[in-house]
Amino acid sequence: MTTQMIVRINPELKNKVNNLAKAEGKSVSEVVRELLEDYVKNRDIGLYIDDLWQRIGDKLTSRKVGPKEIQRAIQKVRAKK
Description:
Layout: H1 11-23, H2 28-43, H3 45-62, H4 67-79
C-alpha cells in the first residue's frame, strides 16, 4: 500500500522536474520515489552494511572462495599475532 506526501516547491523547479521526467519516460512521482529511496539507502547504515556483505559474498563466490579458504585465511592471520 502506498501513501501520499505533499511537498511544496517553486514553480520553476516543478516545471524542470516535469520536463526531465518526461524526457526519461517517467512520471514525477517515479522520479521523487527514486530520489527518496536513494536518500534513505545512502544514509541508512544497516542498508549500507547489508549491501557491503552482499558485494563481498558476490566477489568471494565469483572467485570460487569457499568456507575452507576463508577459515584458512582467518587461521593464518590469527597465527601472526
